[in-house]
Write a structure and sequence with these properties.
This protein is α/β, with parallel strands linked by helices. Helix content is 29%, strand content 26%. The protein has 3 domains: 68 residues, Ubiquitin-like (UB roll), CATH 3.10.20; 137 residues, 2-Layer Sandwich (Nucleotidyltransferase, domain 5), CATH 3.30.420.480; 257 residues, no CATH class.
Length: 490
């Protein structure tokens, strides 16, 4: 297994009357890897490299079947895994020499100023503002990379690799490609498998020759984030049928194994995403991931046991389960009168922590929004498996990522009707699988070819106007469901 970026220290033999090889030949021979591409920018530096017994550190990338010289003389080397989400950018800095993760940071996608959802941003694209959106995203990416490097105390020129995953539209924004053909029939992107470009070509402020791999998309609605997630879970190499649920601004469900893959998508994430639900936050220090209500007392469990600052997707699942179990909401999600409920600005809300206008609270409308989201997610699972002639019991492993992928309590998700009652041992919370797929590529360069080959096996099933989906959705809005038998696996 060869990492994307590695280093070799070589000694270049001095030129003699008997050895008149060019400097590029000396470097290639000393490195001993073929075929080796030496970019023009490094050829311009090679004559200044002394041909002597002094060791020379070469930073090298494995890009497909080719090796590429990325830098000369650097003693340190790092790479970045980057998940480009509609709402947030998440980046992980890794040490190429030790294989260790160094630092993780996230920031809001600056495109938020153009709209919180993809459709609003695409409207701007169709009115001629696509380049503005691309520039905004690139500004955000460069700002996040600069923050990573600053916090880690390294020079951005020491970053020699970047792996990027995002949905199809975000991929096009990142690469500065025209995305105006994606939202209109026949829904055609400019590129499906971007492969490798350099940091200089992408406009990212790293080592200019750093290879940037952009995970491929299998269609307008199946982006590189899903491709990366499939690889992160290993379901593309599994013999038995597995399932991946990726919940973000939308929900995608992937069902398949090493022989076939089908993806369905639906709007199931708004109540879970930071920036849309007022209390909603991504999993981090101080964010509520579990709630318990006992004897009239509410206990919020937060990451790092810090004071509660918000609630993530798994926390919302837990909260709604506990509220329903204790009669604080009915099966339609309507709040009952209790000491936890107050009315502010004309809307009733449930207080988790604090008091006054700055209290951590969930409003009645956000509860209803969440129930629509959980209904869409379960209905997506139900109709997609049915369409394949499968039942829930045919699924051998369930991977949950995105907004629900950190700290999910499977029992509570089943209790509110978000998931079927799969055995807990087959349900795995995977966190950010898009980022994990990027991280895997940094450790194993062969993942690039694996990802590009994968998209040929993925079929997309459109669910938004599926009559079966619309019929089943209405019953799934209730807690747990108007037909609880549909949740049964065994």
């Amino acid at each position: 297994m060869t990492p994307l970026i590695f280093q070799k220290t070589v000694v270049l033999p001095r030129p003699t009357d008997d050895d008149r090889r060019a400097f590029d030949e000396r470097v290639s021979s000393a490195i001993g890897l073929a075929p080796l591409l030496i970019p023009l920018s490094l050829l311009r530096r090679i004559p200044r490299v002394p041909a002597s017994d002094a060791p020379l550190t070469c930073t090298i990338a494995r890009t497909g079947n080719t090796f590429r010289l990325v830098d000369l003389g650097r003693q340190r080397s790092f790479s970045v895994a980057l998940d480009i989400g509609t709402t947030n950018l998440v980046a992980l800095l890794c040490d190429n020499l030790t294989g260790d993760d160094v630092i993780l940071r996230s920031e809001e996608n600056p495109q938020i100023s153009y709209g919180s959802d993809i459709l609003t941003r695409m409207h701007h694209v169709l009115t001629g503002k696509g380049e503005e959106l691309s520039r905004a995203l690139l500004r955000g990416v460069n700002g996040l990379v600069a923050r990573l490097c600053g916090d880690a105390g390294i020079d951005p020129l020491e970053v020699h690799g970047l792996a990027v995953a995002g949905n199809t539209v975000m991929t096009h924004f990142f690469l500065g490609l025209d995305s105006s053909t994606i939202p209109v029939a026949p829904f055609t992107p400019v590129v499906r498998t971007p492969g490798f470009v350099t940091a200089a070509e992408a406009g990212v402020n790293l080592c200019p020759e750093a290879p940037v791999f952009v995970f491929p998309n299998a269609g307008s609605y199946v982006g590189g984030d899903i491709t990366a997630g499939i690889i992160a879970t290993g379901m593309d190499r599994a013999e038995r049928v597995a399932l991946l649920v990726d919940v973000g601004t939308n929900a995608e469900v992937v069902i398949g194994n090493r022989d076939w893959m089908i993806v369905g998508a639906g709007a199931a994430g708004p109540a879970l995403e930071e920036g849309i639900s007022r209390a909603g936050k991504r999993a981090r220090r101080g964010i509520v991931y579990d709630v318990e209500i006992r004897n009239g007392h509410l206990v919020c469990r937060t990451f790092d046991n810090a004071p509660p600052e918000g609630i993530c997707g798994s926390g919302m699942v837990s909260l709604l389960y506990e509220m329903h179990r204790t009669g604080l909401i009915d099966q339609t999600g309507v709040l009952a009168e209790s000491g936890f409920v107050e009315t502010r600005d004309g809307e009733r809300r449930f207080i988790l922590s604090g008091s006054g206008p700055d209290a951590l609270a969930i409003t009645q409308s956000e509860i209803q929004n969440f129930l629509r989201s959980k209904a869409a997610m379960f209905t997506l699972l139900l109709t997609l498996t049915r369409s394949l002639g499968l039942s829930f019991r045919d699924i051998s492993a369930v991977h949950v990522s995105g907004a629900l992928g950190t700290g999910i309590d499977v029992r509570k998700a089943v209790g509110i009707g978000m998931l079927p009652d799969w055995p807990t041992e087959i349900v795995h919370g995977r966190g950010n699988t898009s980022l994990a797929g990027c991280r895997k590529l940094l450790s194993d360069a062969s993942v690039a070819a694996q990802a590009d080959a994968l998209i040929g096996r993925i079929t997309y099933k459109h669910m938004h106007d599926d009559p079966e989906f619309m019929k089943e959705f209405l019953g799934a809005v209730f807690i747990p469901h108007t037909d609880p038998g549909l949740l049964t696996v065994r």
